[in-house]
Design brief:
The structure is a homotetramer.
Chain A (H helix, E strand, L loop, with lengths): L21 H15 L18 H20 L10 H4 L24 H20 L6 H32 L23 E4 L2 E5 L17 E5 L2 E4 L5 H9 L11 H10 L7 E4 L2 E6 L2 E4 L11 H10 L7 H9 L38 E7 L25 E4 L16 E3 L8 E2 L3 E3 L3
Parallel strand pairs in A: 8-11
Antiparallel strand pairs in A: 1-4, 2-3, 4-12, 5-6, 6-7, 8-9, 9-10
InterPro entries (chains A, B, C, D): CTDL_fold (IPR016187), DinB-like (IPR024775), EgtB (IPR017806), Sulfatase_Mod_Factor_Kinase (IPR051043), SUMF_dom (IPR005532), SUMF_sf (IPR042095)
Protein name (chains A, B, C, D): Ergothioneine biosynthesis protein EgtB
Pfam family, one (chains A, B, C, D): DinB_2
């Protein structure tokens, strides 16, 4: 499943005609199945914690999304393959019907994996019909929802990678997902630098009717005032985080938010998720199995609490999402590694000869970066109408914003304005962080 | 998997030579796999509640038992297929090593089902070698442990049926286990009668070194005094239990033990497990799917609390295990239906022409019968030595005794002295009950 | 509150006339208040765990019992002081009305302690009227219920002592209940011996209409067969239990029932409740504050699980309740110390010159002795009718029988047939144990 | 305890000399005790939920604060009254020592209420010595900490009122706190209007070394950009909230944040805390007992989730904290009712003849107003050094900001920049809300 070329191109500019979405639709659907190809049937069934869904549930749910929001309303004569799926694969759309309880997704042996693939192909065929011959009066809505469904499936591609990693990591046998992942080229350590931004009134977010796709939670574009600040040129690395551990970072309550300290003690946290120490060497579980940590790769699988504690220990802080977006929008060398690279693990900064080394790099890709901002609506935010309005807006409490995508995000899915969010306790995403600070006068 | 003939004969008298156990061993192993043959791969993985184990875990655990207690100590040169299995498939033998946590059996996708079958066949082959050429100095121990391992696997055959039923029943799709179960012949309702016993000093239990196999918890034979009592001629039926429901049995606290009342309200019990009402008709989930209840079949999937409440409502009581055993030992027509019948569901009493209709029947088979006795050791009880001592003795608190086997018990596994036990809250076993009362003067 | 004379005599033989219960009623009521006299107002309010009730709740509940079962039905013109008390102080009588939830008794600041004493005295006065001038047609019922209410209040006297100890022990200040407890006279260690019993058919329990009071759960008298056995001449002592601890008794799963092992690990048990080690010395919290343990006193505040594990470690077992009762009924020197002694702590055996030292002593008093018997009804058991039937019968699952009373039991309350019961996990009662074994041939 | 005059004046401008704090210290201490004067001893002991502290704990903790941060470091020869209090009354200062577990504050009967008053007066006397004769070299620190301790005790005055209300409301007897509360004058309904703000770059927060006291979390002053917005002229009223209830607001998931919806269903919310319906009339529990709701008073005891759902239902939103602060800073008629009014209940807007009715009123007092802002640090935020740094900073996750104080806040304690915070689920504070919206073009 590894390759050097982009997995698939999704149009960056938003086409208006349903027909234009046919090929992207097929591409996305194929990649999802490609991601699952190394799995054993048994792996598809497991729910290793409430937040994780069985891979076969992901396969079915993204299919349900197309069926529910496109086929049922717009494909004349469409007959669902199985009426029960509407209940089973509704994730959280309360206004659509009573969703099957999330923590019980892992007790469903049926439909089988084969039946779910059958469901996928049944819906694929119907989607082919709909996109090829859309009813004219709904053409625009169909194009918009096809686009949304494709981005939705991309999100679940990343969730699949995260969840598969969590599932396999719980198993004392610690099986590798596959032995055929790409090996990253050798890296050279890069010292962390600081880059100053003047601040002032900046624009954040995107307009609802822009040419490029964006989620409702990135909208609308609006102004924010930023005090002058500085941003680190790269994320915090494993080596730096080991230093934090060795200096007692997990044992000093003065460094931690109260909720984080309580949770860390309760759960016995002493290092990032998936880490263990043998002698003086730290190892971690990766999708290719147990490996020694790469000192120069960004630290990953830390919660917001750990990122925040590290920043306090370092005498710095996390950037706000506005600071981060402002920097990312104005940086040329922002790309790191995505799902397309086929590493499925964050890797150290690669400095290309054409980069301005003084400026922040690796903003997109490798690790999602925790920001210091709680996930709340932008001024003027309007959720999508109908059940689709439950897509983003209803999660705007209790979560922190992460930015930039990671090694499991499709490259065509991410952009500087993209707002991801997780509870501050979450660690199973590919989440790291970067430091910021007030400008030095 | 249904047949009219016994599934397999296990020698009723205990042979002393390992060689004699080779064929029974093969028979038992084959039946276990036969029971799983209708399953989809996905079904093998599910743990629908903490008390349920994934079918593939059962397949591996019974294999681990032979490996741990026979192959490793006695087969020269035996090399385990996978060292990790010792931890993964140890059920609860704390003195043997740290068992993998029971509630997490359902997060193990690996080893796969295919690998577990490979493990089984690997162990089967080694067992063939050991039983065919046992080292002379351990011959007696090997024969004893082979016998124990076979009975242990029979227990897990019943657990497999119980657990598969629970797993499939959780699924909103309510799939049938198989459509190829035997259909029971038509039954004729039989009125419940009472049969009197004089009581006095009776013998209960069996001697440790008897000719027939028995578990340590059935030993030793000892005397008990029984006051005169009467025992119902058959178990309570579905129809009788519906009457209890309709008379408000689930809503009157005066009928219930305190723990039972609290649990029933907390869990919202209004009928036996797997039952639901449609209009005035009660249906229940069976291994052949949803069916209307058979009014004349014994009520099944009730907890001790429900059995006890019914008895109080009826003005009677449950028999003690000593009363039950005394009656069962002295009754000619005690057999009902077992796993071998292939119904996998309790059925109504069949009255054969040669039966004495006045005497209690159907004591063995169809449903395990809750007794009024807590599960405690007999006077003089000695647990097996070493880790095997954890087999029965350590569960002698918090549980009630059930007697007689059920429609999922192999016929060759049960006997009147057999003591099964479950917590009073358990409902997923094939558990029913029979009434008793003090003798009328 | 300490004294050498019995706290109060309750008639051993059951009088038939309500008038005869007037003085015993007043005596019992006075002792309850005497027990509370060392408390601060704040102590009356605390519920230190779900099983503990605030002392002021006990004071009110026993009063409610007299009001509910005597004054309201039988005292013409009786007007309750406060209608809300019927809900607040109903302990668990579901058939009487919806009881206030037990775990929330500790959030009730009102009625205040003063109001509850007012309630007591209001009811005392009315009870004086009723017992002095009982309506003739209910005379017998009134006498029976007065007797029951008095025994009920005696039970709560012991619960008060247990609960006060638990409440004060949670407080890091570890306040003494009072400094005015009686100091026990010096004791001389007595070696433990064994006394043989022949067994055979024995009588257990008492007839419902006997001359002496007994609870319904002690009835009816019936026969049991006992195999020959031996009983230890005294309970296990602190010194013996320290030996068990030092030999790793809390760390060897082979000694423990499965439920007990899991609980002990979960709760971090390493010694009896209220114990702590300083250097090599064990201390424990008592109602006079922290004290070094007395090596010769019976071990106390152990669960059934710990008692059972000790017995297994010692190669012996606990007696059944029938064995215990048979021994206690036929032993002349059975008395130890009760509430009346004013020690409120078990003390070592005192050997009087007129004792037969070979026979079991100290069966009554000092510590409740865990038996190996689950708490179940006797053959022919009939609960009291009406709401009073909830008194004992509905707790007959999930509990083990203890026998003999303790240092917090009024001497006039206990008898050899008395059946107390607690869940096997309970430790806050004054619970110890004595060993038994099969007879040696 | 009711009066028309301010309860006590705390200097608005921050004095530099410890002596100047002596009288304010005495005033604050006296008010705290005055607030407790209607309580029964028993009321002081209760912890009705984990978030509530027993009143006697509040009395002791605020005293501990002065002892820990002033007397121990700065009063030569100070000897604590009881060394154990340092552990018992440390709220959450992990760097100071191991705090006594919060959920167990309600199991402490000792120290008694009388002992805690003794502790207060002991510390009061020592504080008198310290403030009258401060060591010169620490004079400034002592003045700063005295000021902080006084504001800290004011916060606990409000918490006392909230907690007492919660404690008494749990009791089925629903006792009034006191019958001597001030009765508010009759109110006239005022229609809600909207007032527009231009937005732009505004200043938020206060400078650390300003003349007036402020908490670290209000600092530093910094710029923010506000899009044009409109703010409601008064909080949402009970009558308006009843309309939301009647229109199905609690039953439509489309109105709710996901966390809020799940919580509301789990807890069975159908109205604000303390409300119940009788016929068509809504009643609520107040500190003077059960009363019909006042239709024109601000709705109170709603969670952030309910406020947010109401706003969505109304087609509006909650203001951000920056919007709110900007409006409050520039509004002349901002005062409502505080602790000093003696109502202890929010009351409807009183329109004074000198008010500009078009502008937002009642911003300070009556109800804390939920904002749409998560509680996070301002740019450039620096926590206090040492253990005092745990005062505010470590709670900056998982909480929402509320502004403006309430009917239980001392008038001298509140200011437009003041940031209060609670989890979005909290309802026992006097919390209401006001609507905002984007400016209409």
């Amino acid at each position: 499943m590894a390759q050097a070329e982009p997995l698939y191109p999704v149009p960056v500019e938003e086409p208006n005609a349903p027909e234009d979405w046919l090929q992207p639709f097929r591409d996305v659907r194929a990649v999802t199945e490609q991601l699952c190809s190394p799995l054993e049937t048994e792996d598809y069934v497991i729910q290793s914690m409430d937040d994780v869904s069985p891979p076969k549930w992901h396969l079915a749910h993204v299919t349900w999304f197309f069926e529910t929001f496109l086929l049922k309303p717009y494909l004349r004569g469409y007959v669902p393959l199985n009426d029960a799926y509407d209940h089973l694969f509704n994730s959280y759309y309360e206004t659509h019907g009573d969703p099957f309880p999330r923590p019980r997704r892992g007790i469903l042996s049926r439909p089988t994996v084969a039946e779910i693939y059958r469901y996928r192909h049944y819906v694929d065929e119907a989607m082919g019909l709909l996109l090829s011959n859309p009813p004219a009066e709904h053409s625009r809505t169909i194009a918009e929802r096809a686009c949304l469904g494709i981005h939705h499936e991309q999100q679940h591609q990343e969730l699949l990678v995260m969840d598969i990693k969590h599932i396999l990591a719980q198993n004392p046998l610690r099986p590798a997902y596959t032995n055929r992942l790409q090996t990253p080229p050798p890296r050279h350590p890069v010292a962390m630098g600081w880059y100053p931004y003047e601040g002032g009134v900046v624009s954040v977010g995107v307009e609802p009717d822009g040419e490029e796709f964006s989620f409702d939670n990135e909208q609308p574009a609006h102004r924010q005032y930023l005090e002058p600040f500085e941003l680190a040129t790269r994320p915090v690395t494993n080596q730096e985080f080991v230093h934090f551990i060795e200096q007692g970072g997990y044992r000093d309550p003065a460094l931690w938010l109260s909720d984080g300290w309580n949770l860390a003690r309760q759960e016995g946290w002493e290092a990032p998720l998936y880490w263990r120490q043998e002698g003086t060497q730290w190892w971690h579980y990766t999708l290719r199995g147990w490996c020694p940590i790469d000192p120069d790769a960004p630290v990953c699988h830390v919660s917001f609490y750990e990122a925040d504690a590290f920043a306090r220990w370092a005498g710095e802080r996390l950037p706000t999402e506005a600071e981060w977006e402002h920097a990312a929008t104005h940086t040329p060398n922002r790309h790191g590694n995505f799902l397309d690279s086929g590493y499925l693990q964050p890797v150290g900064t690669r400095v290309r000869h054409d980069f301005d080394k003084r400026r922040p790099g690796q903003l997109l890709g490798d690790v999602w970066e925790w920001t210091g901002s709680a996930y709340r609506p932008y001024p003027g935010f309007r959720a999508l109408s109908g059940s689709l309005g439950e897509y983003n807006g209803k999660f705007m409490s209790g979560q922190m914003v992460l930015r930039g995508g990671c090694c499991a995000t499709p490259a065509s899915h991410i952009r500087p304005t993209y707002r991801n969010f997780f509870p501050p306790s979450a660690r199973w995403a590919f989440s790291g962080f970067r430091l910021a600070r007030e400008a030095r006068q």
